[in-house]
Design goal:
- 2 copies of one chain form a homodimer.
- By secondary structure, chain A is α/β, with parallel strands linked by helices.
- Chain A folds into 2 domains: about 110 residues, Rossmann fold, CATH 3.40.50; about 180 residues, 3-Layer(aba) Sandwich (Rossmann fold), CATH 3.40.50.
- Chain A is built from 11 helices and 12 strands.
- The longest helix of chain A has 17 residues.
- The mean pLDDT of chain A is about 95.
Chain lengths: ~325, ~325
């Protein structure tokens, strides 16, 4: 049987596990979106090792043999466009790869504020040995918006350190294995005031865009901290800036912003109660090999005619699963 | 029966639970060391709510009725002096009160470096959205020097987030409930290279003073981070400064220094790979009420002729227990 044509968007970065893929498929390498579009005729599988904005979309007319697109990321919101959604092309993602790193990132952000490390840094810059208040995790509560694999891993880690976590998902439900209770996203504002930590890991969809708005911010405790590891557009960023400046909430840990990179003039950069990282919460020493192994395993399944893992529901915008969000 | 005379060193700070104590004892309040020394004649119990250096020592000749001294702290190294050690006076401490807060502080310090928040802060100050490396806790290992209640609570919390922790205590032993293995402090240098995180919570004694010296620092991984929540003098601070400056270890989280307050000219203040806090790792919203309740319970035991809790072995310098260090 002839090997399928696999086009990899590399972004001129080394593709982990490339030799293994060459043994399984007829590999074409595309450095950027333009090369990807040119390589689409005859391509059966696209592997977006390095993801840009719209190579697939701009070359869609030339995708005459495309069956499967793999995006080694958790969120597929920037990938999906109407023609792709309406097509029979399968989309898979890297569900599961980033769970542990992101859960740990959330805990790092929570402890950063619980132990008042922003104050520690300010005092240290002035060589000032002066007592300041700190608080314990024990007795606090978290709300995790997004009940997929990242949200679940986060909830389990938080519970392990003494923070019970409730969830916010598409539909309310009881008896969840990882969350104390799951509330419907529509009720965000009515429950937000019960938590010390609000963690966003929901996929960006029409339903979740702007879910953290002025109303929710107004309902949050003034001592509450937001951790956003999902997408910047889950938040009405202007409302968040106002709330942070006014002290309506204690602080924010932002691994994602709108847009990215966050422009230099953004007032968020200068706020002492904000910690910004450049969309790296899912990183770890092992995430590249894990991403490569996950795609290779799926490619072997594809070649053997077995079902693929982590197939994205292109209407929902994420991998739907019995425990999904 | 006449109430015993209880002298409280207040430091002019409000004494939590004072009214309860007045019901149980004939309370004298001493604002400072001089007033404490003056109040000693006839005093049966001294409660060092606010601890200074040497009121008890300087007034020792006048301590004609003293039976019991309570220090609501974990470390008693600054309290004990030869005459007190040689006397029949019982010394108790606040064992257990600080465990959770200190374990959480250690985890905060570990995550601060694992997720490279020092780099995040530097980039943020320059409004720079630039990727940097982070690492996962999963797969790392910790060594906790000090196997008393604080060390055990720390080990349990670290294990809960995926970091197996070994211990360093007076004597090596296997089969510990909280530690994977416990090594003898004398072997610190030979085992230090096996860990990503080295946490110091040992009591300061003749045996532990300067336990983290140039030899141990040289044996530690260049990627390792030190968290010192014990006493500044557990560390040969000049050697630590050299190691931090030379990049021999990754960083240090110092809640204790030598001396305290850390003098403004200390180079430690200015090192980007050092996080300094002013001896607050044991603090929490609940620690004052918990300290007050612990002393009151012990006072009731004393009045009833029952054995006191948390009696310090004045020769060892800490509360000896079946699971102690």
């Amino acid at each position: 049987m002839a090997k399928p044509v696999l086009t990899i968007l590399t972004g001129n970065r080394e593709v982990t596990g490339l030799e293994n893929l060459r043994a399984l498929a007829d590999v074409r390498l595309a450095a950027d979106d333009a090369e990807l579009a040119d390589a689409l005729p005859g391509t059966e599988i696209v592997y977006l090792w390095n993801y840009f904005a719209d190579g697939l979309r701009s070359g869609w007319d030339r995708a005459d043999a495309l069956k499967w697109v793999h995006l080694p990321a958790a969120g597929v919101d920037r990938l999906i466009f109407p023609e792709l959604a309406a097509s029979d092309v399968t989309v898979t993602n890297a569900r599961g790869i980033f769970d542990t790193a992101m859960a740990e990132y959330a805990l790092a952000g929570i402890l950063y504020f619980a132990k008042n490390l922003p104050q520690a840094r300010m005092n240290q810059a002035e060589r000032r040995w002066q007592h300041f208040g700190t608080s314990n995790l024990a007795g606090t509560r978290a709300l995790v918006a997004g009940t997929g694999s990242i949200g679940r891993t986060t909830a389990r880690l938080l519970r392990a350190v003494g923070i019970p976590a409730d969830g916010l998902g598409r539909t309310a439900r009881d008896g969840d294995a990882d969350f104390g209770a799951v509330f419907a996203s529509a009720d965000f504002a009515s429950v937000a005031g019960n938590y010390d930590w609000v963690v966003l890991v929901a996929p960006l969809t029409a339903d979740t865009r702007g879910m953290l708005d002025a109303e929710v911010l107004g309902a949050m405790r003034s001592s509450a901290v937001l951790v956003n590891m999902g997408r910047g557009d889950l938040v009405v960023q202007a409302a968040l800036e106002r709330a942070l400046r006014a002290g309506e909430i204690r602080g924010a840990v932002l691994d994602v912003t709108s847009p990215e990179p966050l422009p230099k003039p953004s007032p968020l950069w200068g706020l002492e109660n904000v910690l910004i990282t450049p969309h790296l919460s899912g990183d770890s020493r092992s995430h590249l090999p894990a991403m490569a192994a996950q795609f290779e395993a799926n490619l072997r399944a594809y070649l053997a005619g077995r079902p693929l893992e982590n197939v994205v529901d292109k209407q929902l915008g994420f991998v739907a699963s019995p425990t999904g969000g």
